[in-house]
Design brief:
Distance between the termini: 55 Å
Largest sheet: 4 strands, antiparallel
Biased composition (Acidic residues): 85-101
Helix content: 40-55%
Keywords: Elongation factor, Protein biosynthesis
Radius of gyration: 28 Å
Protein name: HD domain-containing protein
CATH architecture of the largest domain: Orthogonal Bundle
Oligomer: single chain
Strand content: 5-15%
Low-confidence stretches: 77-98, 453-462
Mean pLDDT: 84
Number of strands: 8
Family: Belongs to the EF-1-beta/EF-1-delta family.
Shape: globular
Domain HD: 289-404
Structural class: alpha+beta
Length: 478
């Protein structure tokens, strides 16, 4: 039986998989129905999905889930998937229900995805361009440089735009022409350009490409040097907390500042994207991990408000939303369906799941990238040197505070009391220690295997699970 590629193309335009957020038997049944790789020009989304699922061929038999959702795309059986979702909300629809509130959430979700698709469709294809600094040397100091430049600029090629120029002394009264040009990478061969320049041998001795930079990279650097990088928490801060807090005016010394906050001072942002991601996380995570994710949001936002007001983090709604998404999804890789179905460490798998989820819900790509980056790096706390994003640093400070009690003196005890009352730990220390040990057993190469952190009570080195279990600060609340 063949697959209905047209319907599948439409379905995958906003999704990474046929059903859910990881490969499943629904993907397998559709993949097997496609005899060969689809035409990428006619079915770009199907082609992208096909090549991705192909990498799981050896694992097809062990992938989770049912093939039922995939069967809707076989043999021209068009969009029965949506009808099925309406008939069986509990099995397929992560966010819907029969009450009016969930119906409104579905409407908002549909509008958000439609707006994302419209924006994506209207976006012109990105043309790769490079900015080139080109140098042309004359024969001697008597060469007519004005004529030389005129000859060079007379060269016309599709995708070539000449820019500013200047004459640069190189010695003995000789000057070379240094000229800037922008080229479309697919259309302009710099070797061919140099051959054309060499044809003016009455004036030209040689030419060289002095510098070349991709225009997209140049634009990114320009953007990232402005306040725009703060929108999704991309500002760089020291990665090592010891460097971050060294001689800090409110966080160092025996009596650091402790603002009197309570958990209700830091509610999750009430945005459509956060609501949808929260529903997904609550469905996929066990109660202890879901509560931990919420505590991390409270502790992190409180830490920043007290000790790093200059970051202006709490005053930037998009950055707070990005952090909320990072908190809700930072441990999604520990969910059973993800932890035991990938060779990757749970942070890396979770980061991929998080990015795919946010994009599928119509979230901005920079926000999805920021969440992905923060989740990958949120357990780099014991690596020295370098920088990390603001969101990544807040996430790692808050998770290590909740997991081992490190730097709990930077927040008020009342905040810990109200936060653990609102989001109970329910034996979180032992629960998470067991998750760590389970992953180490399944994947002895995993990232957590690198953790040998100082046990400040005994003065010895210990593994991460040991210190999670030894969290004396949070023990009264476990």
């Amino acid at each position: 039986m063949s697959a209905n590629l047209a319907n599948l193309e439409s379905h995958l335009a906003t999704r990474s998989y046929v059903e859910g957020y990881t490969p499943s038997q629904a993907d397998v049944v559709v993949f097997k129905a496609i005899s060969s790789a689809p035409d990428s020009s006619a079915y770009p989304h199907v082609s992208r999905w096909f090549n991705h699922i192909k990498s799981y061929t050896a694992e097809f038999d062990s992938l989770p889930g049912s093939s039922q959702a995939g069967e809707a795309f076989l043999g021209g059986a068009a969009p029965a998937a949506e009808k099925k979702e309406e008939e069986d909300d509990d099995d397929v629809d992560l966010f819907g229900s029969d009450d009016e509130e969930d119906a409104e959430a579905e409407r908002i979700k549909a509008e958000r995805v439609a707006a994302y698709n419209a924006k994506k469709a209207a976006k012109p294809k990105t043309v790769a361009k490079s900015v080139v600094t080109f140098e042309v040397k004359p024969w001697d100091d008597e060469t007519d440089m004005a004529k030389l430049e005129e000859c060079v600029r007379s060269i016309e090629m599709p995708g070539l735009v000449w820019g500013a120029s200047k004459l640069v002394p190189i010695g003995y009264g000789i000057r070379k022409l240094q000229i800037t040009l922008v080229v479309e990478d697919e259309l302009v061969s710099l070797d061919e350009l140099q051959e054309k320049v060499a044809e003016f041998d009455e004036y030209v001795q040689s030419s060289d490409v002095a510098a070349m930079q991709n225009q997209l990279f140049a634009r990114l650097r320009s953007t990232m040097s402005t306040e725009e990088w703060r929108l999704y928490g991309f500002a760089p801060v020291p990665r090592d907390p010891e460097v971050l807090f060294k001689d800090h005016p409110t966080a160092s010394g025996p009596n650091p500042k402790q603002d009197l906050f309570v958990a209700d001072d830091f509610p999750l942002p009430d945005t459509p994207l956060v609501r949808e991601v929260r529903a997904f996380a609550q469905k996929e995570l066990d109660e202890q991990t879901f509560n931990h994710s919420n505590r991390v949001f409270v502790y992190g936002t409180a830490l920043v408000k007290t000790h790093f007001p200059e970051w202006k983090f709490n005053e930037t709604p998009s950055a707070v939303e990005t952090y909320a998404l990072s908190c809700l999804l930072h441990d999604i890789g520990t969910a059973e369906k993800f932890l035991a179905t990938t060779y990757m460490s749970f942070e890396f798998k979770g980061a991929i799941v998080a990015r795919d989820l946010i994009l599928s819900l119509g979230g901005p790509e920079p926000e999805a990238d920021s969440v992905c980056d923060a989740i990958i790096r949120h357990q780099d706390i014991f690596v020295k040197g370098g920088n990390i994003t603001v969101v990544g640093q807040i996430l790692q400070l808050a998770t290590i505070l909740d997991n081992v009690g490190l730097r709990a003196n930077l927040i008020h005890p009342r905040l810990i009391e109200t936060t653990t009352a609102k989001f109970p730990r329910k034996g979180w220390s032992e629960h998470f220690a067991q998750v760590i040990e389970k992953e180490l057993t399944l994947k002895p190469w995993c990232h957590t295997s690198t953790f040998e952190i100082p046990n400040w009570k005994a003065g010895v080195q210990s593994n991460f699970a040991t210190d999670v279990r030894g969290n004396d600060v949070m023990r009264p609340f476990d």
